Amino acid sequence: MFLDPLFLMLLLLITALGFIIFLFLPSLIEIVKPRDKGPRRMLRTPLQRIMRKGAKSVFVPKSDSVANSSTSKNFQSFLKETGVKTRRIGNDTLRILSDVEFPPNLEISDNIVIDGALTMGDRCVFHGSVKARGNVTIGNYVVIKGNLVSNGNVDIQDEVVIGGSVHSEGSVRLGEKVFIGLAVVADGDVELHENSEVKENILTHGIIKVLRHPKLDFPSTLEDIG
Amino acid sequence: MVLILYFTFVLLVVIMLFYLVRHYVFSLTALYDQKGQSHFTLHGLSYRPTVSILIPARNEEAVVGRLLQRITEFTYPKDKIEVLVIDDASTDSTGRIAEEFSKAYNYIKVVHRGLSVGGIGKSSALNDGLKHAIGEILICLDADYYPQIDIIEKLTASFVDPEVGAVQGRVTVFNENATLVSRLVALERIGGYRVDQLARDDLGLIPQYGGTVGGFRRSLIEFLGGWDTRMLAEDTDLTFKVYLAGYKLRYVNEAECYEEAVEDWRSYWRQRHRWAKGHMQCFFKHLLPLLKSRSLRLREKIDGLLLLNVYFIPILVALSWLLGAAIFFFSPTSWFESIWTVLPIFVYSSVGNFALFFEVGVGIYLDKRVRIGWLIPLLLLSFVLSTAICFKAFFDLTFSRIAGNNVHKWAKTLHNGGDQKCF
Fold first, then answer.
1. Least CB-packed of A218, B30, B140, B295 within 10 Å?
2. How far apart are the CA of A113 and the nearest CA of chain B, in angstroms?
3. Model confidence pLDDT, tens digit, residues A36-66
């Protein structure tokens, strides 16, 4: 009886029918009596522009004086000398396929994307933006006219000018008299000297630490007070 | 003979299972990993490049005024915005409405295209707009769209990264309550954007430019030579061109925009047929360059390959059905082996070719909605229809290639303004 093919077919049909009803019944209910509260409401709160009102400019170096470097090395000859592998992205961006250490006084007009860590010597000038997948260390008196993006930590030495934003998935440290034209956005901590300036926002998932200049610091011992 | 059938059949099932795994990965990524999102968006607070908004419009009198009015409410500084309405040989009052806005707002401009040059497709209209655009960033919006007021900040923020060449925002259907078709399209959009695009962005794969609610660096578009007028899916074409040029594309889930979805099956068919045909054109155009590319990582190549192949999946599924049936009849064996016959049906039910069942379910959950999920089984209808659409698109493309005809007619989607109460 149970092995009768006709019976099995019938059982299969009933099961299939039951499955189809089970599957489509909610859809039919929703079509006949819709209770969905759609369409989805888009988020209506716009990004708030947070202005640092009343902030005084501590130090605004003239980038031209730094950019006008007569000792700038030819970037192409640097690439040839070091033999680093590069690849062009579009017509205005160069990708470097390894870690790189730029010597001092280098001047680069392209945007630069580095597949590893980046170390910049003093007084380098970048006319575009810079991105590194690793950590970034920037020497003194460097000028980056665009943005600086890093998937690691960013360490910026003294009197550096960055015209755009700094974006880091790690921590950011700004030396003395650093000027950031737009914002600093970081996943980690942000540490900056009190005589550095970030023109717009500092946004971080970590803490923001402001370091005081030693000469301006309060006396720490009774002997200092005399 | 039977062995060859078995081998082909198993190969097809393996391909479909590959898609199945891929979409499970996407769903789980969207559920548990969002590290890549809402991070760059913060730069939108301060980063302000000059932006040209391109709006190609052909006979869009019902909707173009709504979009232009919305643009006047944007929070982005108006001195950094330029709006270019490309009146693409409209025969209705689209041009007049745009001109009225142009008189009232100095950052809105109208480019009129006559009947002799206009009306041949979106790509051609956008190329005309590109000639007049002066912004560093180009944002494309379709006339039936209705964006957030701070969408420009959110979209342009990603361009802080010099490696990012293009961005794509999220598309949400506003007229989903109009008909069953628009509700099903809304489900597809939820799965496609909230889960699929988001996961691809998070996993460092290839998020897709959707043709609207997205933007490019102007220098990149000029480098690529503008929009290819021969391509019906100019968005997919550009996606691959961006990646092959070495740039990245970012999907910004927070940048949302309403769209008017098609409301009847005929419009659905026309729109999807154009998409399928265009996507197949892209497959033939970009397959080899993708595999040969030195700028793409292996995972990007695999994802790109699967993305290019997506409109062939219904065809492969149908082949699997036929092969399964052939094996069943030519090699009648036990009940157990006949399960092979129905396996592709179950696999296809899980895979689909657009937003998949579980992706849609996850998207609905992430959007904190419930009841619309009750319609998920009805996506089978659109999947079955997609099979027919893809077959027709494939044959059309094949025959036109044989005939040496590379010019394909752009099937325009009509918009009536829809139910606007959610605005």
1. A218
2. 7
3. 877 877 766 666 543 344 444 444 444 443 4
Of A38, A87, A201, the CB nearest to B46: A201
How many of the other CB atoms lie within 10 Å of CB of B8? 15
Considering CB atoms only, which of A43, A88, A111 is closest to B162?
Answer: A111
Question: In the prediction, which pLDDT does B240 show?
Answer: 96
Tokens of A209: 């630490």
**Could B177 and A31 be called an inter-chain contact, meaning their C-beta atoms sit closer than 8 Å?**
no
| Contacting A residues, span 158-197, partner chain B, CB-CB under 8 Å | 164-165, 167, 169, 182-183, 185, 187
Q: Give domain status of residue B408, yes or no.
A: no
- Residue A36: its chain B contacts at CB < 8 A? 177, 369-372, 374
Residues A78-136: tens digit of each pLDDT: 888 888 899 999 888 999 999 999 999 999 999 999 999 999 999 999 999 999 999 99
pLDDT, one tens digit per residue, over A18-28 is 988 888 898 99
**A87 interface with B at CB cutoff 8 Å:** yes
B277 and B321 in a common domain: no
pLDDT at A224: 63
> In which residue ranges of chain B is pLDDT below 50?
353-355
Secondary structure class of B260 (helix, strand, coil): coil
Q: What's residue B35's pLDDT? A: 61
Structural domain range at position B70: 37-195+205-290
Instruction: Tell whether B284 and B326 lie within a shared domain.
Output: no
Structure confidence by residue, pLDDT tens digits, B166-183: 999 999 999 888 899 999
Query: ipTM of this predicted complex?
Result: 0.84
| B90 and B218 both lie in a single domain | yes
Q: Supply the pLDDT for residue A49.
A: 46
Measured between alpha carbons, how far is B329 from B325 in angstroms, rounded to an integer? 6
Are the beta carbons of B295 and A113 separated by less than 8 Å? no
Measured between beta carbons, the chain B residues lying within 8 angstroms of A169 are 39
- Same structural domain for residues B160 and B272? yes
Please tell me whether residues B258 and B358 are part of one structural domain.
Answer: no
* B160 vs A contacts (CB less than 8 Å): 129, 147, 149, 164-165, 167
Contacts with B322 (C-beta within 8 Å, 6 or more apart), sequence order: none
Of A39, A44, A169, which has the smallest distance from its Cβ to B173's Cβ? A39
Residue A67 has pLDDT above 50, yes or no: no
- Please say whether the dihedral angle defined by the alpha carbons of residues B98, B212, B175 and B280, taken in this order, is positive or negative: positive
Asked whether the beta carbons of residue A182 and residue B47 sit closer than 8 angstroms, the reply is yes
Our CA angle for B388, B394, B397, nearest 5°, is 135
Residues of A with CB below 8 A from B371's CB? 30, 34-37
Q: How far is CA B92 from CA A53, A84, B70, B97, in A?
A: 50, 59, 21, 10
Q: Token pair for residue B97?
A: 């409405």
Above 70 in pLDDT, residue A5? yes
How far does the CA of residue A216 sit from the closest CA of chain B (Å)?
31
The minimal CB distance from B45 to the residues A40, A42, A49 is found for A49
Number of domains in chain B: 2
Q: How confident is the model at residue A4 (pLDDT cuts 50, 70, 90)?
A: confident
Q: What is the DSSP letter of B194?
A: I
Q: Which of residues 306-325 of B touch A (CB under 8 A)?
A: none
Tell me which residue of B80, B64, B217 sits closest to B153, measured CA to CA: B80
The span from the first CA to the last CA of chain B, in angstroms, equals 61
Residue of B nearest to A19 (CA): B377
